[in-house]
Amino acid sequence: MANLYSSLTQSASQPNPSEQWVYASDQYKIYEITPSAVPDTRAKWDRVGHTIMNSINPDYVMIRSLDGVILMVVGNSRWDAASLKQTMDRECFQATAGDVTYTVEASTGYFAGRDDGATDLTLDGFSDNPLIDENFSHWRTFSDVMQVDGGSTYYMNYNRTQSTNPGATAATWDDETGERDLISEAAKATNYNLGNYFAGRYNEFPLDLAITNGGNLRMYHIDMDEINQGDGTGNDTSITSGATTQTGAQTDNIYDRNGFFSVFIGACNPLMYTFSRLFDIADGDDGSNRDNRLVFFLEQDKFTPGGEFGMSSQIAGAGGDLEGDGSAFDNDVGMIVAPVRFTRP
């Protein structure tokens, strides 16, 4: 696997992960795929989902029950946008051939929240509350994960696992019931013999749950709330807690080599990563209260034993003080189980 840390430079041409995915190599490509019609029966959902696994065999996929949008990671040597569309238009029909077409877009990042106009995907624009269709969602039987707003709008109370360091231990970091449910189901994120659907054995396709083709590709997040706004490039960068310099960053651009951000990249060495900036405009947020997360893909077995907790501990061990306020870095790390959006609206 390529080493992304070695690719970080101080060049102005260095990709900005807050605007796109940064790939370590040409191994993978990420797409968001939208159907011309949302399936309205379980039979249609299952036909589309199972056909995708058989015809496309993506390395990672999640289908949103709310609008049928498909978030997909595929091998870049096997698929491009045109070939994906051609195959899905031809084979991934809902009831009869040709009854649906697909729009395929290359992913530009991981987005959710009011600042990205994603109120149609989340409850009140909060990034950790993605809306779901309670009739079809995988999570409809998980009362501690799926919630209702008092009316008829259902949403997930969790969409990513959390592990806080320091403070948590491997034995206590998943104490919450909903958290345990999320982690338990996320651990099943493989193609658990979905092909049986076409052999006559009914197998419901797990909507709103990220699954793989049997490999170990997973999407993770690192909470980086010490970065309040801007990219450290002079564009409204905010330093918190009275700090006057970005001493922890070492350079003006937090993505530069030898800066603290590059230490994270060097520690987890992801296959591809992006930076998600989220905040709540409706609450009068001026941008200083952001939910900033480094989002990335890597192999599940890289941090075993211990899985996500082992990764959290390793990243926390990198140390550092990004904004230079004298407080040690404190991060939440976990797996993203129900992605929200892969293209900027």
Task: Summarize the structure in words.
This protein is α+β, with helices and mostly antiparallel strands and about 350 residues long. It has a domain at about 5-20 and about 220-335. The protein has helices at about 5, 40-55, 80-90, 175-185, 260-270, 305-315, and strands at about 20-25, 30-35, 60-65, 70-75, 100-105, 130, 145-150, 155, 165, 210, 215-225, 270-275, 295-300, 330-335. The two termini are about 30 Å apart.
Question: How would you describe this structure in keywords?
Answer:
five-stranded antiparallel β-sheet; alpha+beta
Task: Give a brief description.
With 345 residues, this protein is α+β, with helices and mostly antiparallel strands. It has helices at residues 4-7, 42-55, 81-91, 177-186, 260-268, 307-316, and strands at 22-23, 28-35, 60-63, 70-75, 102-106, 131-132, 146-148, 154-156, 164-165, 211-212, 217-223, 272-276, 293-299, 331-335.
**What shape does the CA trace take?**
globular
The helicity comes to 10-25%
Number of helices: 6
Roughly what fraction of the amino acids lie in strands? 15-25%
Q: Distance between termini?
A: 32 Å
Mean pLDDT: 75
Pattern of helices and strands: HEEHEEHEEEEEHEEHEEHE
Sheet with the most strands, sense and barrel status: 6 strands, antiparallel
Low-confidence stretches: 1-12, 228-253, 280-289
Q: How many individual β-strands?
A: 14
Give the radius of gyration. Answer: 20 Å
Strand order, sheet with most strands:
1-12-13-11-14-9
Structural class: alpha+beta
Helix and strand topology:
Layout: H1 4-7, E1 22-23, E2 28-35, H2 42-55, E3 60-63, E4 70-75, H3 81-91, E5 102-106, E6 131-132, E7 146-148, E8 154-156, E9 164-165, H4 177-186, E10 211-212, E11 217-223, H5 260-268, E12 272-276, E13 293-299, H6 307-316, E14 331-335
Antiparallel strand pairs: 1-12, 2-4, 2-5, 3-4, 3-10, 6-8, 7-8, 9-14, 11-13, 11-14, 12-13
